[in-house]
């Protein structure tokens, strides 16, 4: 639904038509370097790989950081934040565009036991991957509107 609204807005602004097949962006190849499998699966679901396209995509250097925030009289962890960052490189013919995409998720952990905290971190990591994947899709849609060949 959100892609349909975006396409209507872009076509109303007299941008060129996008090469989108069933809400998937068409590119010639995707290469992953140091990227988690779960993130790869989410990104691959949104892309359509066709050799005749002249757009190459490289997703590399995934970094993740978990931060705990303490406070109160007992100085226990009150809140945790998981931060993820990935580098996106879009190559169209001779043009190269490098973008760093990041996301973070916070959650309360002052009432969680250690096992529940591990499960919460796994859940937040999945949410982080979904957010990064959607941001990558939005960047590709934005570039598709500016670069006719995507």
What can you see in these coordinates?
- The protein has 150 residues and is α/β, with parallel strands linked by helices.
- It has one domain: Double Stranded RNA Binding Domain, CATH 3.30.160.150.
- The protein contains three helices and seven strands.
- The strands form two sheets. It has a four-stranded mixed sheet, covered by helices on one side. Strands 1-2-4 form a three-stranded mixed sheet.
- A hairpin with a 2-residue loop joins strand 1 and strand 2.
- Helix 2 (37-46) runs parallel beside helix 3 (114-146).
- The two termini are 21 Å apart.
- Mean pLDDT is 75; it is low at 14-22.
What descriptive keywords fit this protein?
single chain; 150 residues; alpha/beta; Double Stranded RNA Binding Domain; 3 helices
């Amino acid at each position: 639904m959100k892609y349909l609204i975006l396409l209507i807005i872009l076509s109303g602004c007299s941008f060129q038509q996008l090469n989108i097949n069933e809400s998937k962006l068409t590119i010639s190849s995707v290469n992953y370097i140091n990227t988690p499998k779960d993130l790869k699966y989410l990104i691959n679901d949104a892309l359509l790989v066709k050799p005749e396209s002249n757009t190459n995509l490289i997703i590399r250097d995934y970094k993740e950081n978990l931060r705990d925030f303490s406070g109160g009289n007992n100085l226990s962890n009150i809140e945790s934040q998981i931060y993820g960052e990935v580098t996106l490189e879009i190559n169209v013919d001779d043009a190269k565009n490098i973008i760093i995409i990041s996301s973070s998720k916070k959650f309360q952990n002052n009432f969680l036991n250690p096992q529940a905290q591990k499960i919460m971190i796994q859940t937040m990591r999945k949410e982080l991957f979904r957010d990064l994947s959607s941001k990558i899709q939005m960047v590709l849609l934005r570039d598709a509107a500016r670069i006719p060949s995507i």
